[in-house]
Amino acid sequence: MEIMKLLPAGKDYLWGGTRLRDEFGKKIDMTPLAETWECSVHPDGPSVVENGKYSGRTLAEVLREHPEYLGTKVEDKKELPILMKLIDAKKDLSVQVHPNDAYAREHEGQNGKSEMWYVIDADENASIIYGFIHPVTEELLRKAVEQGNLDKHLQKVKVHKGDIYYVPAGMVHGIGAGTLVAEIQENSNVTYRVYDYDRIDTNGKKRELHFDKAVKVMNMGVAPDVKQRHRFVHYYPGCSRETLCRCKYFETEKIEVTKGVSFVVKEESFQIILCIEGEGQVETVDENTRPVRFSKGDCLFLSAGTGKCYLLGEAEILKVRC
Q1: Which of 53, 153, 176, 296 has its CA 20 to 30 A from that of 136?
Q2: How far is 267 from 290, CA to CA, in rounded Å?
Q3: Half-sphere exposure of 7 (CA within 13 A, CB side)
Q4: Neighbour-count burial for 56-82, b at 16+ CB within 10 Å, e otherwise
Q5: Tens-place pLDDT, residues 56-91
Q6: Is the model's pLDDT at 23 over the cut of 80?
Q7: H/E element, 247
């Protein structure tokens, strides 16, 4: 069974930088290069298979032909249920919110969007926005947006390399300037901007806000404390492994490979590997499956039922499955 190396789609949002090209080797002619959609079947940014018999085809096309590659756990969805990105926030992202599944499917014809962030790197004073510091109302928020002082109602959290944040649908949020993030999310591209700092786009216009929709889906209560807590890392000969996030949509594990590690891709779910540092190789026990080399920034899709795999090299890996 093929191990598919993926080529991402790029996004040139005005808040982006150049790190994805400079440090992660993304050969995408965009400046800025704000996001790369590393593993995506979304029509707004589909990934393309780089290697093997599916080379040049979108991952969406391959999975439509072979829904068994998704696994029994996601068989009813008929498409890859998650989307994986790299995000380079040179400037602040907008203050925004995503709807839940029920609202998004009724009003947007897409999934809702819950997501998690793994902070790959952060400047010394970088921060994120995560919800409100006190209860708010639609009237209070509308006035704050009009007067440009929404900041005083928002919870700002200083971030550091290695931090993890789960952002459920309905949570007002924003990634701050100087933050480099790997994002794992539902397969959706529904975002409601609440506030965008009155910025002007390349056409000389302010970007559209979606306040009326946003207030219908956001949590207006006090945000939870997202202070980073002690995490459990399991050490083995040749690697360490740590579960970063487990929710109804996906499970994310961080693996630091110093020599090698084995894992099994069962029939129940595909697995995705994103290399955030170093290099290595993935191989299987199937002699008909070619090993695939990877380096920093590469993303691999392993079909459900691939079986026992070996991850060799020196690398930091995010591994995702449903």
Answers
A1: 176
A2: 20
A3: 12
A4: eebbbebbeeeeebbbebbeeeeebbb
A5: 999 999 999 999 999 999 877 778 999 999 999 999
A6: yes
A7: none
Residue positions annotated with a catalytic role: 193
In terms of DSSP H, where are the helices of the chain?
Answer: 19-22, 59-65, 101-107, 138-147, 211-217
Confidence band (pLDDT; 50, 70, 90) for 131? Answer: very high
User: What are the backbone dihedrals phi and psi of residue 126, each rounded to the nearest 5 degrees, phi first?
Assistant: -70, 150
DSSP letters for 193-215: EEE-TT-B-TTSSBPPP-HHHHH
DSSP annotation of 32: S
Each residue's pLDDT tens digit, 33-55: 999 999 999 999 999 999 999 99
Distance CA 266, CA 153 (A): 46
What is the C-alpha to C-alpha distance for residues 289 and 1, in angstroms, rounded to an integer? 6
Rg of the chain over Cα atoms, rounded to whole angstroms, equals 20
Interatomic CA distance for residues 306 and 192, integer angstroms: 38
Distances (CA, A) of 146 to 32, 105, 192: 28, 30, 16
169 confidence band (pLDDT: 50, 70, 90): very high
Which pair of tokens denotes residue 100? 């839940």
